[in-house]
Write a structure and sequence with these properties.
The complex is a heterodimer of chains A (about 120) and B (about 140). Chain A is built from four helices and five strands. With about 120 residues, chain A is α/β, with parallel strands linked by helices. Chain A has one domain (about 5-50, about 55-120): DsrEFH-like (Hypothetical Protein Ychn, Chain: A, 3-Layer(aba) Sandwich). A five-stranded parallel sheet of chain B has the order 4-3-2-1-5. In chain B, α2 (about 40-55) links the parallel β1 and β2 (about 60-65). The chains are: A alpha/beta (about 120), B alpha/beta (about 140). Chains A and B meet through α3, α4 and β5 of A and α1, α2 and β5 of B.
Chain lengths: ~120, ~140
């Protein structure tokens, strides 16, 4: 069984979110094991509960939630990148609970577990 | 030595203690494609490079496009109030980051000479650059 890890560096308002979610969902449905998704740079904004996207636009966070709950997909948030963008685990009410706050070491581990690492 | 926050370090150390075994080594290439002081992409890439290196998995660094500016000597970010993360490149040797490649065409297109602020930078033609890049398991781009 092939294993995949994904690095998200683009923000929720980027159309790359749609591509990334489509890619991940297709991989999961195909039976590819997703070892985890790591959010870095502006990608950490996916976890910001204060981000509101107009209701007639793509709601990336709803899709992350569905994937996380359906497939127990681990979603890791880089703590340094998050804090730089106003997301602190000292104020957890700002961070969507489906995300796990982690260090960059987690990315090293995901990279090693996976056969392929894809960045969006 | 690194510029990581204390919290990052503590999380990293914790993860080292809890999960000491990283089974198999994968090779990683990091492409730097952005100029150093207009955004923090270069610093973000540097943080990733140093973390992988501290897990004894030193990545290869590729500089291409405006990213070649990150290697050019005698720049001073403090003049524009930007933290000079390029200084940390001097620590690459300590971290065993030894594979550093720069695209010759990108330098030429910017009329830059090969006066870099670190040693061991290898200049490659566009084709050789692409071929070298293709030898890694994973590629990240910043």
């Amino acid at each position: 069984m092939k294993k995949l890890a994904v690095l998200i560096t683009s923000p929720p308002c980027s159309n790359l979110s749609v591509t990334a979610l489509d890619y991940i969902e297709t991989a999961l449905k195909t039976g590819i094991e997703l070892v985890g998704v790591f959010f870095y740079q502006d990608g950490v904004l996916h976890a910001n509960k204060q981000v509101v996207i107009a209701s007639d636009e793509f709601q990336a966070v709803n899709h992350w939630k569905t994937l996380q709950q359906t497939y127990q997909l681990p979603l890791f948030l880089c703590v340094t990148a998050a804090e730089k963008r106003g997301l602190s685990d000292e104020q957890p009410e700002n961070i969507n609970a489906i995300f796990t706050v982690a260090g960059l070491g987690e990315l090293v581990e995901l990279t090693n577990k996976a056969d392929r690492l894809v960045q969006f | 030595m690194t510029n990581l926050s204390i919290k990052e370090k503590s999380i990293k150390e914790k993860s080292v203690i809890e999960k000491p075994i990283i089974e198999k080594e994968k090779t990683l290439a990091i492409i730097n494609s952005k100029a150093p002081y207009s955004n923090i992409a270069g610093k973000d890439a540097l943080d990733i490079a140093l973390i992988f290196a501290s897990f004894e998995q030193a990545p290869a660094l590729f500089f291409q496009g405006d990213g070649v500016w990150q290697l050019i000597a005698d720049q001073n970010g403090s003049l524009i109030s930007v933290k000079d993360y390029l200084k940390t490149f001097a620590a690459f040797e300590f971290y065993d980051i030894e594979d550093i490649y720069v695209c010759q065409e990108s330098l030429n297109a910017r009329n830059l000479s090969a006066s870099f602020h670190i040693e061991k930078v290898q200049m490659l033609s566009k084709q050789a650059f692409a071929q070298q890049l293709a030898t890694y398991n994973s590629i990240l781009r910043f």
